[in-house]
Amino acid sequence: MQNVTLSSSFFEESRIKALALQKDGETALLLWVKLFFTAVREDSDGRLMLYGDVPHDEKSISAVYGMPVNTAKSALELLTKFGLLDRSADCFCISNYSELVSADKRERHRKAQQKYAGNKSAGDAGAKA
């Protein structure tokens, strides 16, 4: 589990309120939250990848997140327009990802996971003996 920093006033920002009022705005916000946490879980530096080096596109996002392609396309356009997603030549990326996910928090978490895995392995070996 990664640590993330979302401002408690995120949904109070004027651009987020304005986005929510757009057609498919609420869907776009929910999609962004899902994409954000997927990017965190996949540890992809904010890049939205389907698998390996294969980036998500409108169709794959539609399939993975269970929405019509037109809705996914509209939501992605809104997220890009309101500065929550960036679209480079090769993939979609969460805007300002590095600010939202602190590198030192990620490193602490990685070390904690390694320590936990080491302790669990040692405990399992002791239990089997």
Describe this structure in words.
The chain is mainly alpha-helical and 129 residues long. The chain has one domain (10-101): Winged helix-like DNA-binding domain superfamily/Winged helix DNA-binding domain (Arc Repressor Mutant, subunit A). It has 6 helices and 4 strands. The strands form 2 sheets. A two-stranded antiparallel ribbon has the order 1-2. Strands 3-4 form a two-stranded antiparallel ribbon. The mean pLDDT is 83.
Features:
9% strand; Arc Repressor Mutant, subunit A; mainly alpha; two-stranded antiparallel sheet; 129 residues
Q: Kindly identify the CATH topology.
A: Arc Repressor Mutant, subunit A
Mean pLDDT: 83
Helix content: 55-70%
| CATH structural architecture | Orthogonal Bundle
The portion of residues forming beta strands comes to 5-15%
Compute the separation of the termini in Å.
31 Å
CATH class: Mainly Alpha
CATH homologous superfamily grouping? Winged helix-like DNA-binding domain superfamily/Winged helix DNA-binding domain
- Silhouette: globular
Rg, Å, rounded: 18 Å
Largest sheet: 2 strands, antiparallel
Q: What's the helix count?
A: 6
From the helix content, strand content and strand pairing, which structural class follows? Answer: mainly alpha
Number of strands: 4
Strand order of the largest sheet: 1-2
Count of separate structural domains: 1
- Flag low-confidence runs: none
Q: Helices and strands, in N-to-C order?
A: HHEEHHEEHH
